[in-house]
């Protein structure tokens, strides 16, 4: 067999995109609750439009999600029916610490996640928990400025201590921060950052990044102290950047874009700031508030595996006029004429997954884990809710073959694969429900209207077969 017998197969979701129940169980408000659907969404995500409470005339999709808060047993049973051996989900920080800085956690919030964990284990599914999937309690933003403040490290560690202690012996796989490099691209959504006019936004973002990196190292240390069996990963929004031409200037431009992301994983995996980042920060007159204690903590508490999301590759150019033509996604890119694109303009590049895996494994030589990969598409159900999503099956089959090649032909060490949005959920980038990723159709529209009924798509039985064959049967 191409893949090891203990290879982990499953799917992934985020609390703020599926749970709903924003006002249930003692939960407090978080930044991710307050990102509206519609044309102002990106301005709020970017921290340039301030929105710290629900406002009239806006629809907030995270309020409802797909109501997994009420349906988690049904949903996990469906995952088990597909044969999942791992389910990656995240914690809503404000469900456990509604304000974020309380000395005592909200018991009802912990109990909810305890029931989710127990339900997974009952079905033979290993929980892979993302501690922070962009969530930040609003109180921490209002009082402390969120991750621009070093005090956030202590509040985050309080959350970690509760989780590591409560789930000791039940959960062994953890990710400290989801797509940590997204902080540079959507700072309010990713880290609760807001900016004042005339403020040096790059200074604020890299300061916040430093505190998250220190928090990640401190959490790794704490996890091992509480349970030596814990396995801790970081997570990168990944995808190689191709130079637009063989022109050395384009090759250099692609390397510079890659380094924006590698900066984070270089610190989390190698344990110190890379030389290129130090020089870049000096050139931009950005001052990182690093202490000797920070340096020791980073050096001595590196992660065990590198989790990453992969949806597409990108193309970079040194030509400023050409760059004006880039697609306006969170990671803008030039069009690659050799590739087809999804309905949202994301370029489909299965070979790019193999290339990206080789780039990451060559660079770090630690196990990789594909924790997000999938196709966002408009699904048209029949009268019974069934979706014949051959396009999704084709996309996933090609990407699975690509990572199998990386393992069997290139020697990459890969722990597992969790498809993104194994059940339909609210899109993080667009706030839409119609941008569907799941094997399970959820009857809700972009305004949250619908029955919420769950229906197996054609891809459901296909993925079940893939898992049962450990990736050998892809047709």
TrEMBL record:
Claim: Hydrolase is one of the keywords in the record: yes
Keywords attached to this entry: Glycosidase, Hydrolase
Pfam family, one: Glyco_hydro_1
The keyword Hydrolase is assigned to this record: yes
GO cellular component, one term: cytosol
Species per Swiss-Prot/TrEMBL record: Enterococcus phoeniculicola ATCC BAA-412
Name this polypeptide is given: 6-phospho-beta-glucosidase
InterPro entries assigned: GH, GH_1_N_CS, Glyco_hydro_1, Glyco_hydro_1_AS
Active-site feature positions: 372 (nucleophile)
Family note: Belongs to the glycosyl hydrolase 1 family.
A biological-process GO annotation: carbohydrate catabolic process
GO molecular function terms listed in the Swiss-Prot or TrEMBL record: beta-glucosidase activity
SUPFAM superfamilies: (Trans)glycosidases (SSF51445)
């Amino acid at each position: 067999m191409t893949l090891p017998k203990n290879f982990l197969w499953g799917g992934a979701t985020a609390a703020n995109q599926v749970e709903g129940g924003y006002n249930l169980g003692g939960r407090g408000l978080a930044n991710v609750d307050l990102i509206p659907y519609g044309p102002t969404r990106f301005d709020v995500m970017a921290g340039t439009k301030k929105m710290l409470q629900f406002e009239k005339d806006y629809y907030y999709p995270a309020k409802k999600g797909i109501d997994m808060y009420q349906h988690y047993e049904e949903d996990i049973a469906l995952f088990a029916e597909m044969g999942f051996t791992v389910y990656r989900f995240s914690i809503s920080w404000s469900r456990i610490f509604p304000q974020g800085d309380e000395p005592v956690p909200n018991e009802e919030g912990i109990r909810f996640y305890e029931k989710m964990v127990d339900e997974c284990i009952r079905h033979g599914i290993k929980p892979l928990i993302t501690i922070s999937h962009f969530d930040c309690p609003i109180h921490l933003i209002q009082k402390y400025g969120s991750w621009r403040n070093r005090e956030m490290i202590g509040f985050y560690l309080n959350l970690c201590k509760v989780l590591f202690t409560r789930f000791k012996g039940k959960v062994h796989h953890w990710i400290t921060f989801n797509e940590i490099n997204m902080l540079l691209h959507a700072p309010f959504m990713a880290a609760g950052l807001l900016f004042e006019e005339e403020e040096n936004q790059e200074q604020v973002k890299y300061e916040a990044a430093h505190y998250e990196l220190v928090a990640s190292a401190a959490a790794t240390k704490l996890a091992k102290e509480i349970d030596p069996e814990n396995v801790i990963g970081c997570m990168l929004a990944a995808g190689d950047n191709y130079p637009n031409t063989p022109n050395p200037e384009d090759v250099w431009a692609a390397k510079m874009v890659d380094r924006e992301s590698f900066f984070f994983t270089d610190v989390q995996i190698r344990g110190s700031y890379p030389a290129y980042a130090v020089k870049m920060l000096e050139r931009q007159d950005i001052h990182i508030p690093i202490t000797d204690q920070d340096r020791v903590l980073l050096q001595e508490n590196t992660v065990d595996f590198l989790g990453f999301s992969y949806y597409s590759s990108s193309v970079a150019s040194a030509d400023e006029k050409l760059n004006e033509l880039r697609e306006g996604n969170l990671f803008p890119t030039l069009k690659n004429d050799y590739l087809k694109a999804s309905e949202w303009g994301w370029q489909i590049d299965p070979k790019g997954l193999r290339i990206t895996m080789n780039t990451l494994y060559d660079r770090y030589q630690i196990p990789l884990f594909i924790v997000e990969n999938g196709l966002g598409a408009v699904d048209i159900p029949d009268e019974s809710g069934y979706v014949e999503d051959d396009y999704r099956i084709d996309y996933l089959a090609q990407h699975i073959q690509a990572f199998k090649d990386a393992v069997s032909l290139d020697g990459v060490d890969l722990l597992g694969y969790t498809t993104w949005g194994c059940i339909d959920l609210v899109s993080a980038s667009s706030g839409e429900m119609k941008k569907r990723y799941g094997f399970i159709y959820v009857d809700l529209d972009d305004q949250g209207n619908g029955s919420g009924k769950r229906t197996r798509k054609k891809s459901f039985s296909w993925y079940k077969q893939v898992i049962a064959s450990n990736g050998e049967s892809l047709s």
